[in-house]
Every structure is written in structure tokens, then in C-alpha cells.
Amino acid sequence: ASDVFLGLSHEETEGLAVLEALACGIPSTIRNLPAYPSTNSHVSGVKVVGTSAGTDKVVETLRPMLAMSSTSMRTSISQLAAPRSLSKISDDLGKVFKQLINDPRV
How much is the CA Rg of the chain, to the nearest whole Å? Predict the structure, then answer.
């Protein structure tokens, strides 16, 4: 269990650790990197900081999240990762395979 997640890498390929934290509904501070899922600034509990943000800026994002963690906030956070869930990806791949199987050109 974790109270907060810090995704402060300067480079990522897929950002799996961030996806796992979001899927678990853990309040997170992450860097603004292309690999990370799109985040809605209106979702409390997820803060995006620039790649040059220093320690003071990161700490500034953590204090409010630790003070207001709630079930509804955690649910909103977990919904950010839903488009990249394994079940969603497998459903999408299944649709592609069915289209290929039914395509007379293949």
C-alpha cells in the first residue's frame, strides 16, 4: 500500500509504474512526459509537474493530496488508467484479429 506515488523520471518508454499507481487509485505526482497517460488537471489527486520542477514544487503538490485522500478521489484517479487496462487492450486486440480473420483480402 502507498499513500502517494512519485513518477519523477526524466524519460519513460511506457510508464507502467505510473499506470499501476493510477489503476490502484494512488494519488500521484508525475512529470509531464509523452509516455504517461493523458491526465485531466481537474482530477484531484494527480498533479503533473514540468521536467525541470525542483524538490520544492514536488513537495508543494504532495501536501494537499495527503490531506484530502478519499474514496471518490481514488476512484477518479483509477479511471485515468482504464483506457490502458489489460482487459481494454485485450478487447481491442480481439476486435482487430476478428477483422483480419473476416477480411477476404487476407
Answer: 17
**Helices 71-81 and 16-23: angle between axes, nearest 10 degrees:** 140
Cell of 25: 487509485
Q: pLDDT of the chain along its 106 residues, tens only?
A: 788 888 888 887 777 888 888 888 898 888 887 776 665 556 778 888 888 888 888 888 888 888 877 888 888 888 888 887 888 889 999 999 999 998 877 6
Q: How far is CA 103 from CA 24, 67, 96, 97, 106, in A?
A: 39, 55, 10, 10, 6
